[in-house]
């Protein structure tokens, strides 16, 4: 396996301004992901992809080199993760490093640790398009999710005659923490269109993702308990 670990970190967060360098339990948020990655991989294949001088500086305070700032076309609100990954792959290929696996670690998952990464990697093989971390969703479409029909009435999103939530089929939700991706397939199609995808299950606390201020408040509570 020739991995490239990509940690995508935009400077223009809307939900929690400056969240990637904001301190959680006394440590910048992005440091949690950098530390988890460095416990598994060599620094030479870890890439923080950012458009922000501030994030670059905060990341490099760990001793990790940040090799570039994203070009302008990847610094907009509309820039997607897929394009960011392709840019990183191309950058390293131009430096004569040809990864066959991308490990995407989003810095908004501070409670994903090195053991989770190792376990996800063990599940991956070259016949897969992707191994992705998930949690069991509480928003089960057989039970609590509804859509509005043409007449304006609510109908269950997924048909099924279930009277108890625990009788419904399990449904999995991407938690955003870990993606182990086949580079050859990624060059053909976007993340959303990968077909041969296997799940790696994580618990709710390890899956916690920070998208808004309420998420941040919950993260502070979790961090104060975990890192006592």
UniProtKB/TrEMBL annotation:
It holds the Pfam family CTP_transf_3. It comes from Flavobacterium suaedae. Coiled coil: none annotated. This is Acylneuraminate cytidylyltransferase family protein. InterPro entries: CMP-NeuNAc_synthase, Cytidylyl_trans, Nucleotide-diphossugar_trans. CDD domains: CMP-NeuAc_Synthase (cd02513).
